[in-house]
Fold this protein.
Amino acid sequence: MAQAVSIKNLSVIFGKEKQKKEALELLDSHSPLDVRKKTGATVAVKNVDFEIEEGELFVIVGLSGSGKSSFIRTLNLLNRPATGTIEVGGRSLTEMSKDELREYRRNDVSMVFQHFGLLSHRTVLGNVEYPLEVQKVDKEERQERSMDAIKLVGLDGWEHHMPNQLSGGMRQRVGLARALTNDPELLLMDEPYSALDPLIRREMQNELLKLEDEMDRTIIFITHDMNEAFRMGDRIALLKDAELVQLGTPEEFFKNPANQYVKDFIADVDKTRILKVRNIMRKPTAVAKLGDSRETILETLKEKDMQFIYVTDDKRYFKGFITLEKLKKSKAKTIDNLVENDKTQIYRNDYLQDAWGKLSAATFDLPVVDGKGRLRGILNHDNVVDALAK
Amino acid sequence: MFRIMNALLEYPENFTIDVTGPIDRVVDWIGETFRGLLDAFVVFFTFVLDNVQWTLQIIPWWVYILVVGIAGWRLYKWPTGVGLGTLVFAIGLLGYWEGTMYTLTIILVSVMISFVVGLPLGIFMAKSEKFEMILKPILDMMQTLPSFVYLIPALMLFNTFGRVPAVVATTIYAVPPLIRLTYLGIRNVDEQVVEAGTSFGSTSMQMLFKIQIPQALSTIAAGVNQTTMMAVAMVVIASMIGARGVGNDVLRAIQQLDVGTGFAAGFAIVFLAIILDRLLQGIANKLDMTAQEGEDA
Ligand SMILES: Nc1ncnc2c1ncn2[C@@H]1O[C@H](COP(=O)(O)OP(=O)(O)OP(=O)(O)O)[C@@H](O)[C@H]1O
Ligand SMILES: [Mg+2]
C-alpha cells in the first residue's frame, strides 16, 4: 500500500532562535528534560519516524505535554520542524514555497480542532464552505458541496444556525464537515472529542468509524485517552516526553508491550471496548435455507444435537430461527412457514461492550450479522467471557 | 555662601532657553511648505462639513425622534426607545436644536475621519510588532495629554479659526481608543480560529477580511463608541478655536458666568452624549451576541 505520510527523524523545538540552535546540538546526546535545563528551549518532539499508510486510521496517544499536538501540527506546517523531513503523498512539506504550501493546505489536508475553532460570526453553512470560499470556488458549487458535507455529518436542517446555537457535539460535527468539504487526502484530528461528554463522545467515535469505512482517506487522530486510542486506531503510536515509545496495532500492544510504561499505560484499558464481535465470533454448526425440506433439517438437528437452527435466504440474509420442537410437531413440507424471528441479533462491528447487554441475557448462541443483515456467525455469552479472560 | 544658597533655592532668572522662536519657525516652515496641501485640506473638509450639515438639517426634527426611538426599542426594549426619543425632543425644547445639529456635524465628521484613519492603524498595529512598538507609546502619551493641547497644533497649522481646525483637533483627540480597540479586537481573536483559517489556506487578506475583522467587530464597535464620546467631550473645548454650536454656547456661558445658559446648553450636550452612547453601545452588544460562541466553546 502507498505511504500517505512519511516522517523521518522529525524534531520540533520551541524557544528563541539562539536557544533552538543550542538545543539542536544537544538533541541527540541529551534527554529533552536535560536540553531544557541547559538551553531553555522545549523539545516537544524528538527524532520521530513514522510511515503512515494510505487509508489508515493512525492514532497518536500520550499524556498531556507529550508532544502530540506539536507533532500533528507539523503535518500542515502550523509548526515548523526543527529537523527532519515530512513527506505527504511523496511531496516534502518543508521544501514547499509559500504558494505551494497554501495550495497544499487548501486541497490536500485539513484539520479538526479540539475546541472546534469555528468562525462564530458565520452560520454552520458559512463555516463549512469557508475552505472552498478561500479557493474561490463559485457560490453554487461551494454550497452544494458544503451541504453534502453537512448531510454526511448529520446536520442537515441546521445549516442556517449560528455555532453558538449548537451543542458541543454538533459544533464538532460542524468542525468535521468543514474539514471534509475540501475532500482532503489527509485528515488531522487533534483531540477532537476531548471537549465532549462521554456519551456524545462515544457516538462521535462511532460515527467517525462509520465515515472512515465509507471514505478513502488517511486519518491521523490524537487523543490522550487510551480507550479511545484502542477503539479507533488501526495502529497506535504512544508518545512520552517527546519520544516514540511504541508503535503498533492494539493487539501488538497487548501481546508485546515494549516496557513497563506501556504496560502501565494499557493496564486500565477496557478490553470490552476494543475487541469487536467479529474478532471472536464462531461459525455456525449448521444453517438452514428458506426452501429446505423439513425432514432434512430435522435430521440435521438430531444428528448434531442442536435445539434450534438459524435460517437465511439463499443470499445469506438472516431470516430467523426454527426450534427442534416446532420441526417435530409440524407436518409441513418445507421449513418456510416455521421460521420465527424475535429480532435478537448482534452486529459484527459492535464492540463487545455494546453487544454485552444482549449476550448476557441469552443462554444460547446469538446470530451475528453484518451491516446489510447477512448472517456472518454466532456468538454466546461464554465466548466473550473466554476472550476477556485471556 | 549666602549667594550660593539663594541660587539653589530660587531658579536663576536668566538661566532659560527660548524655545518659542524655533517652534514658531518650524510651524511657519510647515505652514509655508505645505500651504497648498493644507488649503486643499480645508477646502475638502469644509465641503464635507457643509454637506453633512446640510443633510442633518434637511431631515425634519420629528424624524430624529422617531428614528432614535425605534432604534432604542430595537436595540434594547421599548422603554429605552421612549427615553431616548424623549431626550431628542428635550434638546429641541431647550432651544438648542440648531446648535446641536451643528455640533453633531463636527462630531460625525471627526468620527468618520477617525474611522478611516484609526481602523487601518489599528490593523497595522495588530499585524506588525515593529509598528506596535512605535505606536503604543504615542497612544499612551496622547491619552495623558490634556485635551486643549490639541488645539494648538491644529490652530497653528491651519492658521485660522473655524470648523476645520476644530475637526482636526477633535479627531486627534478622539482617535486613540478606536486604534487601540481595533488592535485589541484583532489580537484577541481566538487563536484556534485564526489557526483554522491558516490551516485551510487563507491568504493574509482573506484572514483579515473574512476572519479577523468580523471576529473583532464588536470590539471595534466599542472603539467607535469611545471615540464618539471623546469627540463629544472635545467639541466643547474645540469651540475655543471656532467651532460654533452648543459647545460654543457652553463656553460663552462659562466666560460670562451665565449659569442658566450654561446649564441648558450643558444639558443639550449631555443628552446628545447619552443618545449616541446608548445607540452605539446597543449596536456593539448586538454584534457581540452574534459574534461570540457560547461559554463552553
Ligand atoms: N507554542 C509553543 N511554545 C512553547 N512551547 C510549546 C508550544 N507549544 C507546545 N509547547 C510545549 O511543547 C510540549 C509539548 O506540547 P504539546 O502541546 O505538543 O503536547 P500535547 O501532547 O499536545 O499535550 P495536550 O494533551 O495537553 O494537548 C509542552 O511542554 C509544551 O509546553
Ligand atoms: Mg495537544
User: Anything to note?
Assistant: The mean pLDDT of chain B is 87. The domain at 21-58+94-296 of chain B is CATH 1.10.3720.10 (MetI-like fold). The pocket of adenosine-5'-triphosphate (ligand 1) is lined by residues A 14, 42, 44, 62, 64-70, 224 (CB under 6 Å). Residues 204-238 of chain B form the longest helix (35 residues).
